[in-house]
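sry for the spam today, last one i promise. struct tokens for design, 477 residues
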């Protein structure tokens, strides 16, 4: 009669693969469907939001949740974490005040201490007292006299390197260095794909499009769903909709309805002149969707930099944010954005938007004006459950029995979602109770650094990006 899988997951993005890894870890027979030829092809990510310091408008509760979830995920995927800090600043043009960030950082340090007291292995962001450091105007003047350090080892060395390039006259003081690290999507995808391809508990179906889902829950069969592809039907007991911004399509086919937003965004790859010492990720806060939205400069190896500018002519797009309509569960982008999602970018637009991003960052880093286009954009669309655009911690919902809809907004939420789904499967008696749980996953631990290096490089090149984007600036053992 064919194999029956306890768990069927549609979508091999971050949430789908982490759910598959967690279920396989506990011996749950799982099948994962991904229409692309490799895993983790969704919206780009580059930052471990261990505190939420890139967002001035979110609640303290969301900041704490981002820190906890980021630590949990970083412990699973250490070879994708780039241990370089983040420079946080507020331009003088902005109404937001630095003291509000400082107050939040104090709260985050106390919370970080709590997490370490719960489990000493949570101390992955350095010591609590080194989580952040604030620099006054006098501090910055002192650091300008310090020599550049090729590979910084302290907050002062990172800031000393940074002050050589930024224009402090454009910024409010103090400015901050915080231990929010980089997160490499190619290395994350490589480790996840290697682990899932090696376990017997997960049947990995890449290059496979799901054409239909049939609900057989009321037919007294030994399973609840039939997942149809072009040439085969797969039987599963529990269904996970992990289709990212396309979750509404599955909902619609199952006659389920939920409000959601979807948003298309892009980041740009630039190449800059070689500089003698590493710099942190640079954040210049600004009001989103205005001409002075946040600017973000993310360093990579070999003088490549990823750029964000939260304006309509850089990262954001006209009609790039779409809301679901009454009686229409899946929002729809216009034709132009749909073409971009398929990779059909006009060469001129890539050049113009990348140059816009370079000019935007050069307002604060004057010598960056010499940067050039370094590759194609990193792009994608994400879902935001409900109607709150400021939401950063989306998780999972259970619209009906034996069905879960993953609704992560940030990558760090994926493990929380996976564990909630597995708990729900136990509640519904799909699987027996799991008595012993651990934070680590042997499937991931067994993947070597060399394997990750090799596949991460292949994934970057396969997707037409510079190979340097697959490497870490700060090498790990």
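last one done:
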């Amino acid at each position: 009669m064919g194999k029956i899988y306890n768990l069927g997951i549609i979508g091999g993005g971050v949430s789908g693969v982490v759910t598959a890894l967690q279920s396989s870890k506990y011996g749950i027979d799982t099948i994962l469907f991904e229409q692309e030829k490799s895993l983790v092809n969704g919206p780009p990510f580059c930052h471990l939001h261990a505190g939420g310091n890139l967002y001035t408008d979110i609640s303290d509760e969301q900041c704490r949740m981002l820190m906890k979830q980021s630590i949990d995920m970083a412990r699973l995927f250490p070879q994708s974490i780039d241990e370089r800090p983040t420079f946080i600043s507020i331009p003088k043009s902005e109404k937001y005040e630095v003291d509000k960030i400082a107050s939040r950082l104090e709260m985050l340090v106390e919370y970080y201490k709590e997490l370490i007291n719960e489990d000493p292995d949570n101390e992955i962001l350095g010591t609590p007292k080194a989580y952040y450091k604030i620099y006054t105007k006098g501090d910055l003047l002192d650091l300008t006299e310090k020599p550049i350090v090729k590979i910084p080892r302290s907050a002062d060395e990172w800031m000393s390197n940074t002050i050589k390039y930024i224009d402090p006259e454009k910024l409010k003081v103090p400015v901050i260095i915080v231990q929010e690290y980089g997160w490499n999507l190619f290395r994350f995808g490589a480790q996840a794909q290697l682990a899932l391809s090696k376990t017997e508990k997960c049947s990995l179906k890449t290059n496979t499009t799901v054409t239909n889902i049939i609900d057989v829950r009321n037919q007294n069969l030994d399973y609840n769903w039939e997942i149809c592809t072009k040439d085969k039907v797969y039987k599963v007991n529990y269904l996970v909709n992990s289709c990212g911004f396309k979750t509404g399509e599955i909902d619609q086919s199952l006659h389920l309805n939920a409000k959601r937003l979807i948003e298309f965004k892009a980041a740009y790859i630039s190449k800059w002149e070689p500089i003698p010492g590493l710099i942190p990720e640079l954040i210049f806060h600004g009001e989103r969707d205005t001409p002075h939205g946040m600017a973000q400069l993310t360093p990579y190896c070999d003088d490549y930099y990823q750029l964000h500018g939260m304006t309509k002519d850089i990262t954001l797009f006209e009609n790039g944010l779409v809301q679901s309509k009454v009686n229409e569960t899946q929002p729809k982008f216009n034709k132009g954005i749909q073409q971009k999602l398929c990779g059909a970018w006009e060469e001129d637009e890539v050049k113009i938007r990348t140059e816009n991003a370079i000019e935007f960052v050069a307002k604060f880093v004057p010598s960056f004006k010499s940067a050039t286009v370094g590759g194609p954009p990193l792009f994608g669309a994400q879902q935001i459950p409900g109607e709150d655009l400021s939401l950063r911690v989306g998780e999972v919902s259970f619209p009906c029995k034996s069905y879960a809809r993953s609704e992560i907004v940030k990558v760090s939420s994926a493990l929380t979602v996976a564990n909630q789904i597995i708990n729900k499967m136990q509640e519904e008696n799909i699987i027996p109770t799991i008595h012993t749980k651990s934070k680590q996953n042997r499937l991931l631990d067994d993947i070597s650094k060399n394997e990750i290096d090799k596949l991460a490089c292949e994934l970057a090149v396969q997707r037409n990006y510079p190979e340097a984007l697959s490497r870490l600036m700060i090498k790990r053992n």
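The domain at 4-43+186-258+388-470 is CATH 3.50.50.60 (FAD/NAD(P)-binding domain). ok im logging off now
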